[in-house]
Predict the structure.
Amino acid sequence: MADRLQPDRLPDAEPAERLPAPAMYLGGLSVTLAGIYAVNYGLADTSFLLLTSGLAVLGYSLSFTMRRLRIAVGPYPTYAAIAVWFYIYLTLSGAHSDSAFAPFGASDDRGRLLQLVFLWLGVLHSFTLTTDEWVLFSCVPSLTMLSLVSTATADVPVQYAFFVFIIGSTVMLVHENFLRTQRAVKSGAALETHAMRFGGQAQLVLVCVVAGFAVASVLQAPVEVVGQALALPAAMRDIARNAPKPLRKLVPDVSVGEQFSVNIDDGPVTSSDQPLMEVTSGKPYYWRGATFDQFSGHSFTNNVGQAAIPLSASPGGAITPPGPVSGPRPDEVDAGSSANVFTTPSNPTDPDARSRRNAVFAGQFVHIVNGSFNQIYGAGTILQVRGVMGGVTYNQSEGLEPSTALGVDAVLYVLSRVPDSDPAILRSVGAAPAYPPEVANFYLQTQTTDPAGDARLQAVASQTVAGISNEYDKVMALQHYVSSSCKYNLSTPAAPRNVNVAAYFLFQSREGYCDSFAAALTMLCRYAGIPARVASGFLPGTHDPRGYYVVREKDKHLWTEVYFPHVGWVPFDATAGAALAHGSAAGSNGRREPFLRWLVSHGPLPIFAGAAIIALLGIVAVTEARNRLSRVASARAWHAPASNRQILVWYGATCDLLATCRIKRPESLTPDEWGDVVAARIGDNHIDARTAFLRLTQLCSHYRYSNEVADAQDVASADKAYRLLRTAMPAIRREMHEAQEAPQA
């Protein structure tokens, strides 16, 4: 009997009473809060962020405290959480979303509501944490939230939230693995080894986080290629579009819309040939959805359009063009008997009617053939829109958003005012004209956090327009400079985060895609004293012989718009004259260089990082396999009957109970010797508990080391002994605590 008994190595041996691990709960809370922050990012309702975050903190605190005090609640909190979550799901997915479960302004955004469903799942889950393993489940709703948000925006705050998620989830995985290993090695030893192992766990977390981000930077490009290759082909989408409506749901929709900010030069992009809309128009135009004014050095933000204005609906109203219409007229298009007409207000950044020169009123018939549209697109400045929509919001950056996403087969009639882009008219504006304050205040901003890059842009702009006498020729000279200096390449890697990306694009990388060209031309115009902004939307598309333009996903585009007094905002596209970089195709998916060649071209660091990650993963795999195989071999080596194993399970659970009273078994003691020690520690105040433990020790020693089979009576006796000890344990723990405090008093 010299061998040390290791009951937790046996099959089905599970400690009954475990104290909660603070590291698990802190990691879970950080993971949940990261997801909540990501969902609330971009919303103006701060109270909803505070509400959901506060509930999550309350849930984790309550769950931890109840486990610490050993208040058994059973599965009822889980049942209640499922019921409440199901009610919230039904409420959010209904026709009228309850504002108590959705922040202000998000109740009509179906994409945002899906994020809210998982947000509430994470919040309610925090009230049901009865085991450390269940805490680990918090990664699931949080990762889903972050994934849904990242499909709509990749802004820096969302990246920070994902970074917090990586750290929190890694802490939980490492610590949970540590706890399982400790329970497998020595029953009852986890409490005294937390402090000893904390430094090693912290180091392992740091290594995992750093290695994770290193391998992510290495694998980013090839993963995007694989993801694009695995995407559903456009042909299959076309087949699905013509299939019955129930079958269409099997094909994932493309979410089409705009955000309040757009990152510039953010890494390789991919797109497909999938048609999104068919636009009937007299001329090909840029179909604009949003504009951006404030430049941070790495992104453009829509500060002008922060305030959303609900437009009044005119049921069954008629479109009233102010003048002759180019393209389809309103009376030629049937948008449905239940269609509403929405009219946009006058915009202070547009010339008024009295001073405006030669504007064209363009009619467009828009038919959505794929995707889910959260934005209304049209040429120039949209004046009126007619369609089956419950509501439309408008902002001063001339963006229009439907209250409910527009799906397949939705039709709209859009009436726009398009400025005259005749060079003669634009040259007549002259040099250094007076700009309205509303335009100058927002669209002449130049300063960023990169003074060196700002200075280079200023010097190039001044040198390029020197000697030119009118604004139009200045813009054309700047556009020629951008398009002749840089090449178009969809596979361009992301720019460094701490530089002015417009300057980096013009003077260092000299390769990029539409956002880089648009940002560079916009900022050069501003440094030349000409108001400019970045516009986002779609290229005109491909003209179909049947009389409309087919606009595809690959036509998503950014360009520059320049303000001319008495004319308005005129589009300029620096990508139009740019040469293609080797291996890239304009307006389509860029061909990427082979992965190994790409890896070598980025220097030794990616190769070293990749080799290190592979080595670490190999070590983990070998260690885990060896550990599992040793456990299997150990279990197979001892062919004990199930009744004998059950007695050892009760003995192991009792050792865990004693560990909570700081009665820990040294490795050098046999079960019988340890039984004498425990009996002395329990004392005469709990004779029944002492007798029960000695009886359980006797059964354990006998059936662990003999060939006899325990009968039902012995198993019942072991069960009874364990239950008696569990009942007496609070009193024993209290007396031992008082005994420890007595000398200090």
Remarks:
- The chain has 22 helices and 25 strands.
